[in-house]
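A note from the maintainers: we've had questions about how concatenated examples are separated. There is no special marker in the raw files; a new sequence line simply starts the next protein. For clarity in this README we add a label.
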Amino acid sequence: MFDPLSKQKKQLNSHRQDYLILKAHKDFQLRYAKNQTNNLLSSPKGLLTSFILGACNGATPAKSVTGHTKAITLLERFLTL
């Protein structure tokens, strides 16, 4: 039987397969990134970094140094250990 839309149907199926492959890859990458983030934050280095940044945020500086610059300085010192 003659189907005038057969070419368009094949193209649509091809695009649908490409979409499903890309969606599966994106979902995998998202899960991987979430796992890596959880692993980093629950590691000793991640916990110590969080503690340092929290301490900097709650500390009151004696000089007019912003908390942001102090946190970055401490973070740089910690990461170079």
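[label: protein 2]
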Amino acid sequence: MTTMHVVYRVHDEGRIGEDWSTYSFPDGVFAGGPDLEPLRSEVRRSAEELAGTAVSVVEHIERPAGPDIYVRGALDDRAAERADVIDAVRASSLVRGERTTPGSRFPLAASGDSILVACLPEDTLSWVLEQMDAHDAVAVCAVGPSLGTGRFVYVNYLAREAASPAGRDESDQSIAEAGLSPDSTVAEFVRATITAGRRGLRLSPVG
């Protein structure tokens, strides 16, 4: 069965009459509308028509965090937990700083936007990599314990081999060089990069 990742992106969030748009990979299905649930049904139908067979649709939602910055969360059986991560990331000082100094902290995905993937500790790096094409670089985001009135928010990077220069730099290491593998969890990714003392470390999945 063919697998297609579909992203539902919300615009003008919080206003009456939200505006939604979609994009998908590896095949492109594009749609839009004011309501999410009818849009999901339309996209599923379009995906099967495009593939000519049954399609396993893996769904994600993206919410804006600033100009050209979106936080992505999977619409899976742990969507409520991922929504908490999305809220924490959007409220974090990292994101607030990026709003005033664009391009200084987050890599660029193939779309030209900064995509921050909201992760849970048990998620694997392969789960993140499945959401990326050869030209993508995304920020991996996880939330730690509460610290006073806030929460610790971790952000680091995964870059594919053909990612744009804005998503990579000369400090890139492969996952293997960092002592990790695609089967490593996000929790292991966090520990490895923090232990290395390089919060800005960008990892490429190419060994």
